């Protein structure tokens, strides 16, 4: 794992950073990808401190501001990136104060700028169909991709959730999957008819052929690459990017998850139910998808409200 390699590199020089990473991984049970995101930002910060000749316990608000200027000079950064940097530093310094590694938290007097929540991009129903039609289901790779992206769209999965699916998490007789989401939390999600059909086809006609390329060694991961090994997130991103281009569209695979939520709400699904299906801890995260209803609401108001122009 990449995170383990990086941990070994930083352990001798930055014990405070190593302790914080261990806390994120063990106590908060964050995914390796999330810990890696923290690591990349904090390595940059510790490198900055090293160049300034400043120990972690001597950091003050002024130095934090200098670091933000330094990051700006390295390359233009957005307000969203600044918020992420400050959030990362705030979490680390809060941990270090709690553990007694430093006496004061330099982040206490710094305010994080408010950034408007970004409206997610979504595919229309016809665009989803067009992308899925690009896959050659006569090959094991194409069959895998059709079942993979049908499942992501049908179940609203994150890429990491789809990549980590195992045979033991499939309950196709009941029409559901057990998905392990952020923080190691499990949830049960129903599988739509199309996704169930293509997943069964892949398990019978595609996966055994891919697995045979591994020399007979077994793995419980559902989705395999062309060498018979577990298909990772980067592989999924690359495959989806290829098909989107083939379809003459633009977009990322995570937009299938956005589309799942948006299309459910457009169809009349309850917001709380969509929250459960997506695995959101906070319903305010799910509410961002209600933006698609705005045009419909405005048109309905304009048509039917007695005080609206054109109303009956």
CATH topology of the largest domain: hpI Integrase, Chain A
What is the terminal separation in angstroms?
65 Å
So, CATH architecture of the largest domain?
Orthogonal Bundle
Structural class: mainly alpha
CATH class of the largest domain: Mainly Alpha
Task: Give a description of the structure.
With 312 residues, this protein is mainly alpha-helical. The chain folds into two domains: 2-98; 125-295, Orthogonal Bundle (hpI Integrase, Chain A). It is 57% helix and 4% strand. It contains 14 helices and three strands. The protein has helices at residues 2-10, 15-27, 32-52, 61-74, 79-98, 125-132, 140-155, 159-163, 193-212, 233-246, 254-266, 271-278, 283-286, 293-304, and strands at residues 170-171, 176-180, 186-190. The protein has a three-stranded antiparallel β-sheet with strand order 1-2-3, with no helix packed on it. Strand 2 (176-180) and strand 3 form a beta hairpin. Helix 1 (2-10) packs parallel to helix 3, helix 2 runs antiparallel to helix 3 and helix 7 (140-155) packs across helix 11. The chain is globular, with a radius of gyration of 23 Å. It starts with a helix and ends in an 8-residue tail after the last helix.
